[in-house]
Write a structure and sequence with these properties.
The chain is mostly helical and about 130 residues long. It has a domain of about 80 residues. About 75% of the residues lie in helices and about 0% in strands. Helix 2 crosses helix 3, helix 3 packs antiparallel against helix 4 and helix 3 crosses helix 5. The longest helix has about 50 residues. The chain is elongated and about 90 Å long. It starts with a helix and ends in a 7-residue tail after the last helix.
Amino acid sequence: MKELSKPSEQVPSKVSDRTIGNILSEADRLKKRRKEATRRKREADRLKKLAKLEATASTLWEEVYRHISEKKPQAYDVAITILQDLYMLAKHQKKQAEYEQHIRKILQEYSRLPSLKSKIIHAKLIRNL
């Protein structure tokens, strides 16, 4: 019972020197740091993907032709996805003209496949068509 009657010890409250402005500034710095880390990670992932694409580019072109030769819309979709990756690689390597020659060759070889042409145009895989 004596314990209950003892005056409770007051813990001194620590007054912070931080202001709302300081807190908001720190939050802004942390947000910018997180954004930058995310940007760096995305760029590293992109470069990693480009390196992988570069190593397999000739095989990927063969896959594109194989999918197109199936003459099925789902296979065209797969081919378009690969072509988009190859476009990203060509852009990175500054070889867009060479890439567009490949696309023009595909359009010429498969000129009787309007749905393929439509998908290529819709995916914006070639300029000036």
